[in-house]
Amino acid sequence: MKTETRLNSNLDPENWDDLRAIAHQMIDDIIDYTANIGDELVWKPIPEEMKSVFAQPVPTAARGEQGAYQDFKDYVLCNPMGNIHPRFWGWVMGNGVPFAAFADMLASTLNPNLGGGDHVANYVERQVVDWCKQMVGYPAESSGLLVSGGSMANFIGLAVARNAKAGFDIRSQGVSAAPAQMTVYASTQTHSSNYKAIEQLGIGKDWMRFIPVDEHYQMDIQALEAAIAADKAAGYHPICIIGNAATTNTGAFDDLTALADIAEREDIWFHVDGAFGALARLSPKYGDVTAGMERADSLAFDLHKWMYLPMGVACVLIRKFEDHISTFTVSPDYLSHMPRGLASSGGHAWFGDLGLELTRGFRALKVWMSLKAYGLDHFALQIEQDIEKAKYLEKLVTASPHLELLADVPLNIVCFRYIHPDIPADELDDFNQEIMLRLHERGLAVPSYTKLNGHFALRVSITNHRTTRADLDLLVEGVYAIADEIRGGN
Question: Hey, which of 193, 224, 320, 440 has its CA 20 to 30 A from 156?
């Protein structure tokens, strides 16, 4: 009898009504938590005794669904990163759409694999990719794929660039067979995911030309042209220019039209890293800053940043389908397409032939349902509001006698520091770092940081639909209060 019970066991609940009750409790708890998140600290250090919970060995005995959920409430829910809070402005992070979180639950319940096959989840992703093309002004006949984030989107775009411009069968022969050393061009402000991709693609970071920027942190066009000319004269093979549709440091846009012209003239691939800035195109008021982006051979952008969706969804678009599929497709017997049935193509390429992943989750559903629920115009309005909040903070900084703006504010990023005649110039970096650390530790606000012209900057990146002007007032007040404490020796 024991053997028969063991063979017939599975991971469905013994009582579906009990699971239903826990599920309702989860939904109620998380809605209450999100609705009141502004009353909580943004972040707090995890107590050392609580960290020990996460060093415990794998459980072998059942604790039950209710016990597992209680552990979530006791140890996880109370120690969040904080990026759904109205005063989280670190790095570039969206803060989530509650309805989309439930779409993720639905996707996990259906649990399809979007590597390929003729089933409805693939049609949802194809439609979302088509919508993404429309959002950024890309050709309808181009190719695209949803991926985990901007780093993978950049990797896919740059892998296609390498293969399309190598000039030989690089998939079969490898980069060591290149008749000339390939070179890639990006500004000194380009995101690290781009040169990480170049490293992993076998080209090597030493062959990436980091072009200087001007006083607005835009790529110096003349310096780019000179670098390409010098590399050609030396017998190297320029294959790709990477343009920034909003840099991570300051939100600066390269002159994408000028970069597209150079790429076209020199027969070089043009990749645009639009991690968050690409979606500025949705705004009728501010979208002109993206001009030229639609000419890119490949374009990467995140939907979990300035579309505010839950983490784990970005898009890469490739202008020519043949370039895309020829970079990744493989055809083993066990993945061959059938004329009918689930293993047919449905008249489309399998997504597993357009990227590295064959097993792919249903990340498209939260995008699909959110756009249906709220409409694209509402997202465009949120983006405009974020930009206007950044302009408001810029005014607060410039009007404050002891705050100094360290870069232009083209979109939604404000970089500034605290200054005072009593603080020696060589101590300002440490002073401002201490301000930031205390803001974090007190749970008051989470800006991040960068270095601009050698100066430590408090960096506020607003991709947060929950932020209000009052939150930004509180930030400035907090910076002044902490600065007074430090200056007073506290």
Answer: 224
